[in-house]
């Protein structure tokens, strides 16, 4: 029996016994299609080009149990307080092992016109506006981890922002893995109406140092002239595995600005794809990661320029120590109708040890002739002359190294539109630099 068969059988068996009343939901047909696709696909191997640099055999062979609600009522405010942000004025929605915790969530300081509900409420109502949109963007036909998430989708956060509503206080979706050895499948939906504006932070944490597997999917629909500031912070334990898939569709003149920050995790893979489905669109995908020991952090981006007069910007920066490994694969597709496209992609990595490693794979695929597209990738070490400059002024070596490394990361951090999140990211970065 090969690896695929073993894991297909394991999760098929779990699927058949996992659902009870939820099997009556109309969405369950999609779950069944998804588990069938997962059975056909199996976990990807390094023989597949998209996964050439990231070996997920450890995830495939581990015996993760599908998460249940067992610990939702046991986690306390004290347990989660370190994951929240000082001076955060907006809403916080807390999920434990992927399940909504009403007692830990606070929906306040937000327009009453914005709908924030657990995804389960939409699935139970069947055929409403939100449930009809699930799986329209994140395809489970070819992506095994999306298929696995979709098969076990029961809960997540669904946010709907009506036309012409501007919400600046923000929504913080706090995801906490609490059960050792579990596989949780958070599923989020963000629907931004015409001329709307919002700020949403997704953060991922673990309560213990035990191994877990978090397999998240977020789908984002942006209507014309919508503005969304979307940030993802992953600070799970160093034994955790994290696969994240984010799929965005943007309509004309919309503006999507994102940044992902990775500090924790044993094996981390972030897939983010956006379709520029109208003219006048602006899309920004930024990222910062710092890894040590044997951490492996992989960022995979895909920007689809489908229409003319659009801009996209990418800036990813990585800091690798010890035997850590980073991967960046960024593809920009410019279709034939996407004339006057302006696309810029930059990937920079700082190696702080001889054993640290980065694999970078920038890709441009262009079918239009009137475009401006650039990409660049750099890999290097700290500037010795700058280090000498600091040391000559009496600054200790370790402090000088931290200052230079922070300066390398600063551009991504200062672009964040939320000061509380900025402060949290800076604090985590400084902690990592000193450890």
Summarize the structure in words:
This protein has helices spanning 3-18, 28-41, 57-61, 77-80, 119-125, 144-151, 384-392, 397-414, 419-434; strands at 65-66, 91-96, 99-106, 115-118, 156-161, 171-177, 182-184, 187-192, 197-206, 213-222, 227-234, 241-250, 255-262, 267-276, 282-291, 296-305, 311-320, 325-334, 342-351, 357-366, 372-380. Strands 1, 4, 5, 7, 8, 10, 12, 14, 16, 18 and 20 form an eleven-stranded mixed beta sheet that branches. Strands 3-2-6-9-11-13-15-17-19-21 form a ten-stranded mixed beta sheet, with helices on one face. The protein starts with a helix and ends with a helix. The protein is built from nine helices and 21 strands. α1 (3-18) runs antiparallel to α2, α2 runs antiparallel to α6 and α7 packs across α8 (397-414). It is α/β, with parallel strands linked by helices and 435 residues long. The radius of gyration is 21 Å and the shape is globular.
**Radius of gyration from the alpha-carbon trace, in angstroms:** 21 Å
Determine the fraction of residues in helical runs and give it as a percent range. 10-25%
Shape: globular
> Beta fraction of the residues?
35-45%
What's the total count of β strands?
21
Determine the number of helices (DSSP H or I, runs of at least 4 residues): 9
Poorly predicted regions: none
pLDDT average, as an integer? 93
Major sheet details? 11 strands, mixed
Head-to-tail CA distance between termini: 43 Å
Helix/strand order, N-terminal first: HHHEHEEEHHEEEEEEEEEEEEEEEEEHHH
Question: Which structural class matches the secondary elements?
Answer: alpha/beta
């Amino acid at each position: 029996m090969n690896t695929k068969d073993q894991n297909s059988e394991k999760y098929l068996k779990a699927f058949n016994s996992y659902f009870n009343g939820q099997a009556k939901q109309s969405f369950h047909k999609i779950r069944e299609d998804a588990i069938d696709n997962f059975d056909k696909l199996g976990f990807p191997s390094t023989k597949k080009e998209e996964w050439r640099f990231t070996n997920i055999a450890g995830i495939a062979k581990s015996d993760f149990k599908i998460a249940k609600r067992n610990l939702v009522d046991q986690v306390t405010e004290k347990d989660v307080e370190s994951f929240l942000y000082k001076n955060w004025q907006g809403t916080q929605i807390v999920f434990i092992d992927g399940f909504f915790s009403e007692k830990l969530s606070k929906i306040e300081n937000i327009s009453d016109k914005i709908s924030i509900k657990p995804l389960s409420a939409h699935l139970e109502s069947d055929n409403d506006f939100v449930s009809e949109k699930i799986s329209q963007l994140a395809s489970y036909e070819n992506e095994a981890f999306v298929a696995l998430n979709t098969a076990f989708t029961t809960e997540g956060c669904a946010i709907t922002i009506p036309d012409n509503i501007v919400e600046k206080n923000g929504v913080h979706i706090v995801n906490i893995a609490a059960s050792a050895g579990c596989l949780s499948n958070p599923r989020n939906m963000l629907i931004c109406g015409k001329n709307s504006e919002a700020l949403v932070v997704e953060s991922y944490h673990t309560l213990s140092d035990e191994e877990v597997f978090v397999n998240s999917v977020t789908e984002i629909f942006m209507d014309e002239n919508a503005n969304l500031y979307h940030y993802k912070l992953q600070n799970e334990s160093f034994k955790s595995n994290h696969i994240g898939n984010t799929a965005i569709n943007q309509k004309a003149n919309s503006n999507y600005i994102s940044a992902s920050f990775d500090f924790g995790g044993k094996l981390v893979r972030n897939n983010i794809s956006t379709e520029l489905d109208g003219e006048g669109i602006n899309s920004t995908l930024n990222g910062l990661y710092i890894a040590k020991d044997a951490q492996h952090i992989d960022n995979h981006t895909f920007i689809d320029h489908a229409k003319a007069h659009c801009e996209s910007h990418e800036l990813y920066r990585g800091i690798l120590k010890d035997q850590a490994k980073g991967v960046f694969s960024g593809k920009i597709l410019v279709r034939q109708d996407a004339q006057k496209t302006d696309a810029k992609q930059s990937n920079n990595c700082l190696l702080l040890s001889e054993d640290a490693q980065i694999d970078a794979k920038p890709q441009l695929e262009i079918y239009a002739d009137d475009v401006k597209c650039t990409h660049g990738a750099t890999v290097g070490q700290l500037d010795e002359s700058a280090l000498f400059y600091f040391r000559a002024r009496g600054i200790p070596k370790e402090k000088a190294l931290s200052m230079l490394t922070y300066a390398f990361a600063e551009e991504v951090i200062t672009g964040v539109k939320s000061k509380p999140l900025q402060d949290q990211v800076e604090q985590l970065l400084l902690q990592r630099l000193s450890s």
